[in-house]
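Researcher: Batch entry, complex prediction.
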Amino acid sequence: MIANRKVLTEDMLARIEALASRYPTKQALTLPALHVVHDELRHVPLDAVVEIAELLDLAPAEVQDTLTFYQFFYQEKPHGKVRAFVCRSISCALRGGEQVLEHLCEKAGIKPGETTADGHITIEPAECLGACDFAPCMLAGNDLHKDLTPEKADVFLESVGRQDG
Amino acid sequence: MSSFDTFEPVLLEAAGIDDGHTIESYRSRGGYAPLEKLLSEKQPPEVVEMVKSSGLRGRGGAGFMTGLKWTFLPKDHPGPIYLCVNADESEPGTFNNRILMEDDPHQVLEGTIISAYATRASTAYIYLRYEYPKSWDILQKAIDEAYAAGFLGENIKGSGFSLDIYLHRGAAAYICGEETGLIESLEGKRAWPRIKPPFPAIEGVFRKPTVVNNIETMACVAQIARRGVDWFRSIGIPADPNNPRDPGSYGPKLYCLSGHVEKPGCYEAPLGITARELIDRFGGGVWKGRQAKAVIPGGISMGLMTEDELDTPLDFAGPGTVGCLGLGTAAVVVVDETVSIVDFLHNSCRFFAHESCGQCTPCREGTSWSLRMLERIRAGKGRLRDLDLLAEIGDTMGMMPGSTICGLADGAAWPIKNSIAKFRDEFEDYIKQTNPTGYMETDPVPALPIVTTH
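Model: Structure tokens for the complex:
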């Protein structure tokens, strides 16, 4: 049991523990556990790292080491309600991916990698999203946006702005 | 080599079929029957022999003989043995694994089950990149269907063979596609590739014997079980009889065509189709009626072919004959004549600087300094001397010069080496025009702060 549990909820614990039988070591649950927390909170605060470490019989530094290697995980503050990855790798770049990224950021009033002040959206450059047949593309949440143009990007931004609450 | 006109796609047979991803659809096309037959008639060593004699080479990039890889597992090991299926497809330009997982996941699963049976693995992990949430959902549903139909779990179809398949989600890191990086990541650690030996077959994930195979390789195994070794060997480029070390390039291949073509997409063709045939027959030609300036033969890490080199066959041996690193993932990216080679190389260098895992100094420093130099050249402060420095970085970082643990640095080096060797005039013109007063300088200069990475 975790002493002074602050971040991990019963539900998160149950979801992590449900995966335990899949792996012969507890450490292998590190990435799945980080994902469980990150999916829920949109970041993995340091307290969660300490609690995951305790759950998996690891030093907090071991969990933090893994977390920081994958730049995917936010720590200090959550990413926006929507996290949009705009591909900048070669196939998308050849078909205007960087212009779409610039356009989106300009419209949202942020720089690549930043979150809007209202917390609605984070726009990040991404390396190849594996959808080069639809270049330029963007992954926002679980949705793949294909064959992007500045016009389609505007429609997307408007839809994000409408999702309030 | 079989003619393109009579070639029927098999790996992509489900493309365009409604509900092709369901188990009913897969079984109606003949799927899973080969698995049942094989479980009742063949012992694991016979399955290894079948795959070995088919000549199947790994589809993930390195092109190692799949059956031979399996024979490196220790004999009579008490277990457990693990099978890791590599779905961390991240090589720029590559998306064939995504298509296979989304259009025909049971083909992938049947191949995985057969491969696990052959290697005596009782657990298989599919390491799936974070960026494929749709593949995750479809594959998980297919796994559930396969359990319900008795193709996974305890004592599959009364054979005594048991297998569990688990999906494991990555976290957006290119290096996890390197097989020992994948293993470290699966163990819950940073994905730093391991020094080999020991190879994974001897000591892999959780310190147990492990095989790592690509998703498309699994699909090929399923098709070999269904259609036979002779069918597989009737497709592609046979081994060169004058080169005893050439294992040939057999079977169908999924080519990913993207960039400046009219119809980007994933196309199935016999191994050995040329880049020009691929672009013209499938891709509808270079877009906007333009000419190709350069073509990536198999993902950005393989380097570049020029327009004159487009008749090179895209089999495992072809791209190497024109100075490229190899066939890689067979992701063909077309770059048209309007693109500056400086911009192309900058994009490549930025990718590798971002994705180097930082473990080996030559790669960490080489990728980041090559990016800084490209940034400086693009800012109008390039010097002719920089081209020699870039070429030197290209020649000295990687497994081939022996300075790094894994092949990421070779992949970073090849676009640099090929670009400068094949387009040096354009680089020189660019530098002279953008830095007319300073292009001849040779003194060390400070780097510019990098503005385009984070």
